[in-house]
Amino acid sequence: MALQHPSAPSCAASPVPRPTARSGVVHVNTRHTTRYTVVGNHLAQHRELSLVAIGLACHIQSLPVGALIGIKFLAARFPESEHRIAGALRELEAHGYLARTRERLPSGKVVTRTVSYNQPGTAVTAAPGPSRRPERPQKPTPAAPKPTPEAARPPAPTPGPAPREPLPKPRTPDPERHRTAAALLAELPRHVPGLLLAERDVHRLTPAVVAWLERGATPDAVRRTLTARLPDDLKHPAGLLAHRLTALLPPSLPTTPVAAGPDPLQTCEGCDRAFRAPAPGRCRDCRSDHRKAA
């Protein structure tokens, strides 16, 4: 009988880890030491962003400063079309992961400045300064020249993304206009199925529609403005409607002075004849006779 070795493994270890759950993904993680990017779960597991937008945000955050991220450049780099890439960039802007501004150079050329945020709501900070010098230097150093006021002035911080413009509000409360505006927003899916709004979005956008009605816009005109030329891949109808209600707000109706009516009828104190005047007294003929007699 062959000699048995109880300490020897019964079979070779499998390179695939055994799952700790009955179903679902199993992670095989390797610690990165070079060429990696830290991405927050708030982005990777975002509930409202599309997969194209999440992947595009991860790609942009992995690029070095100064890399090109124009729509045409990204469309040439990835299989997605320019239309889908443009929609993903708009999603990232709407959720604070991207800010794009157009600036005119001294040469007259217009360029697009893009700022990527790995955490929405943070402002752009200045580059870190030099390392701190030791408190007790071993060798005496000559006194540094006194800085000029221009050099001592700290650099102005670069502003973050501009805040969104608030929605318009009506000047005076009007329950009838409020009911009309709420019904207009709730019935938009009957005209365009993609404009189905949540109840909280209807409550939030109703005052803006009331402001339009208050300025003389008819419900049909408001509906045509909100439903005209919608994008094919509309994913955030509430955000699009809020932008249109704010950016396309019509001007207030001009205030026309009320025409003054005729003077009231008065009874002449001299001849009892009726005449129009702002206050009681004599008619024109009696005033003339009175002046002649005087």
Describe this structure in words.
By secondary structure, this protein is mainly α. Among the domains are: 76 residues, Arc Repressor Mutant, subunit A, CATH 1.10.10; 73 residues, no CATH class; 29 residues, no CATH class. The chain is 35% helix and 7% strand. It contains 11 helices and 4 strands, in the order ααααββααααααββα. The strands form 2 sheets. The protein has a two-stranded antiparallel ribbon with strand order 1-2. Strands 3-4 form a two-stranded antiparallel sheet. Helix 2 crosses helix 4, helix 6 packs across helix 8 and helix 8 packs parallel to helix 10. It is elongated, with a radius of gyration of 37 Å. The N and C termini lie far apart (159 Å).
Question: Which terms summarize this structure?
Answer:
mainly alpha, two-stranded antiparallel sheet, Arc Repressor Mutant, subunit A, 11 helices, 294 residues
